[in-house]
Amino acid sequence: MADSIAPASKETVRLWRIWRTTRQMLRDRGYEILEEEVEVSLDDFRARFHGPAGENIEIDRNHMAYTLKPSLEMIARYTKSDRHGNKKEPEIGTIRVEFNGDTQIGVKTVRNFAHTMEQNSVYSGILVTAVSVSSACHKIAQATFPKVMELFEETDLIVNITQHELVPKHIMLSPEEKQALLERYRLKHNQLPRILKEDPVARYLALRRGDIVKIIRASVTAGRYATYRTCQ
């Protein structure tokens, strides 16, 4: 008779939720990932990272790492044109996601992750940490420019904030949509209401300065209405 699988521990459930949120987040940004690889069940998560023994061993966060490529639509959204209309190199590429369970995160950890990004030839990286990181770590992350490194705490990802009923739908506009919007209303970027890069939804979508998002809200009279914000 096959061994029965022990009930999932709270820590396993917690890591499953965090891991799943990162995949939902990257799907929503436009990376290539199948829906069945996003909405992975708790049982499948345990089987993948615990193995047949169920709860006999702790999950190794290193095994939770993964890499995704941007979709063609995403590449088009991040490809700008010069003043002659010629397309530049896309400002997007493969992304690497890693999880770190250390009780202390220092500059060395962040530099090591930057080195991992370089070794794997990825354009972007997300490091999810079990504890908060210092301002010095954030400075190191910013220093990887033009590559993009993002630092998230696990507590930020236990719940997908965009699925909360009080959070309206945010849609990032393509370069063509941005231009059409500004021309239609005869506006400049700085004349639109702002959304800060530190805003939770802005971080979820990885908005960059100058990006414009369409925000769709519920309305008692109109059903739905849209507003626009530019990232600062």
Notes on the structure:
- By secondary structure, the protein is an alpha/beta fold.
- The protein has two domains: 10-158, Dna-directed Rna Polymerases I, Ii, And Iii 27 Kd Polypeptide, Chain: A, domain 1; 162-231, Eukaryotic RPB6 RNA polymerase subunit.
- It is 33% helix and 19% strand.
- The protein contains eight helices and eight strands; from the N terminus they run H-H-H-E-H-E-H-E-H-E-E-H-E-H-E-E.
- It has helices at 10-29, 35-38, 42-49, 72-77, 107-119, 135-142, 175-185, 200-205, and strands at 66-68, 95-100, 124-129, 148-153, 169-172, 194-195, 212-219, 223-231.
- The strands form two sheets. It has a four-stranded mixed beta sheet with strand order 1-2-3-4.
- A hairpin with a 3-residue loop joins strand 7 and strand 8.
- Helix 5 (107-119) packs parallel to helix 6 (135-142).
- The longest helix is centred in the first third of the chain and has 20 residues, at 10-29.
- It is globular and about 60 Å long.
Bin the helical content.
25-40%
Q: Structural class per helix/strand content?
A: alpha/beta
Main sheet attributes: strand count, strand direction, barrel closure: 4 strands, mixed
How much strand?
Answer: 15-25%
Mean pLDDT: 91
CATH architecture of the largest domain: 3-Layer(aba) Sandwich
What is the CATH third-level topology name of the largest domain?
A: Dna-directed Rna Polymerases I, Ii, And Iii 27 Kd Polypeptide, Chain: A, domain 1
Report the oligomer: single chain
The number of E-state strands comes to: 8
Major β-sheet strand ordering:
1-2-3-4
